[in-house]
Amino acid sequence: MTGSIVAGLAESRPTKLELRMVVAPNRGQTIVVTADGRDGRTALDLAFAAYPDRLVLAAPLRKAKLVVPNSGGDRLMFTVAGNPADGKAIDQGDRQFRLNAGLRINTRSDPQPNFFEAKAEFKPVFLVSLAHYDNSNCKFRDGTWIIRNEMMELQIESTSGRPVSLEFHNEAEGWSTTIRPERNALTSEFQKLAGPLAEAAVAYDGASPWKALLEFSVDACLDFAREYGAADNVESMSAARKLVARWSPPALAALLDAWDRPLRNENEPFCIPSQLAGFDFDRIMQNGSQSRKNLVGGLGLPMYRRLVPATGWMWPAGRDALLQWAADDETALSDLYETIESDETGPLGDFCLASVGPYLNLDLGEKAGFAGIKRLTAEGFQRNYRPLLANDSWLGRWCLSLAGAARSLDDGELRALCRLLPAHVPDDTALACLQRLKKDPQESFEQALSASLDLFWAETLRTEVSTELRQFMKDGFRKRFMSQCDNQIRPASAEVEVAPAPAQVTAAPDDNPWGLQPGEPEPDPDENLDLEEIPELVP
Fold it and tell me: What residue segments make up the domains of the chain, in order of their start?
């Protein structure tokens, strides 16, 4: 099966971008990405090939490649399915047919060369329905049905019902995507790539595949900058490439060890049956499902334990949040509230909990916001980052190694690197913080990093965190206030004539979320907010 994407980029410096993927089940695959410049020559050329024993990622123009062994066990699986909707969905006014796409990681299947796997399954009734979709027209030509509309063209063999090709296109934007079966396509593609891959020299360390992949990606961006970017962009990407080369992050395998372990140990006299210990991605989003509990207990918590420090706020906060999400447990929720109120959590901890709360079906914004604004001090922030300096966790080693690599760059490289930061981070502030790492050669690395982080907190981060916590408080208060308004007990219609009218309750407007009286000052979390004057929070 072959798939290709072609995009015309008339308003951009590269005028054409093309991606071609060839997949042969159980035999291998290739992916080739090319971009043409205005003069018609190839400006960007990347190639990926999956052989039974190795994976090769190459830049033929640079004659450089990365080669890593192919275990064949772990694969990314793309699925596309066209099915009719069920009767309940149709009764509710939903579409009669659905096109569903999915992505999952397969770690338990038999070894195969393919690093990516694609599966498409369309019910016959779904394919027929396309002929009636949005002004579609249908033609029969040479034994093939051709269904076409403004967005797609589908060709189906009439005798077998086998899809011949599927094309999505947008003529106005100048792009198209085509998927079709093709005989001997992989063999032909391997032959085309044999020469360029053989000429490319191994330029990356296959023993550290994730770092090597990052280096390869930065080099590709650097090639693009040299071809199309300004001199400042080239200088910035060169500094980033040097930073990555000097960075020694912990191996990702150490974090994903729990993922690679089987969910049951066959040698134990008692173990949970594998069909009960496993999970599937279709059910983990269902509240209280066994799949969600197995995911958190079997993989989420073991991986998170390796990720965060042994001490500090990160482990109890993340543990209790995951347990509450998995089992809707009142004990975990109570422990989570205690973590929010703990001084060890610090302002960043409260901000993180307020931010992830909606994704875990938890309303933590108001409680975490009130707790966080009481800790907007340097000491509170230090309680957030000091556990990471202990070098006893994957995340701690990751941060320390990155800071060490930044400390090894000179001032010019640091200045160029700062130009890659988001616009809301001032270049001069970021540069000052990075230069603080190098200010005193006699300082230990931990002392220099602490001083740099404290400077960043005082100059930029404190203001941003304060603003976000303040907004969490306002949104949480407004939501609770509106809920109380909706729950007001109103008199029955027969009682209205004799009973006094209840006091009118109106929603607080957006410009007065606290419901303050005219002239009453709004509480300021940055100036000794008196929490006694704020309505009590009831879990």
Answer: 2-219, 255-262+287-487+514-539
